[in-house]
Specification:
- There is one protein chain.
- By secondary structure, the chain is mostly helical.
- It has one domain.
- About 95% of the residues lie in helices and about 0% in strands.
């Protein structure tokens, strides 16, 4: 049982990292787009 919990926590952490990275990249792209527009 304890083993399953640690695996789920690790997977959850990786998913959160990927989501955070994609949000940051998307925000950076949006920022560049906004600057080009002006």
């Amino acid at each position: 049982m304890g083993y399953k919990v640690t695996v789920i926590k690790k997977v959850d952490f990786l998913i959160n990292k990927v989501i955070f990275k994609s949000i940051c990249e998307g925000f950076a792209k949006w920022n560049k787009f906004q600057k080009q527009d002006i």
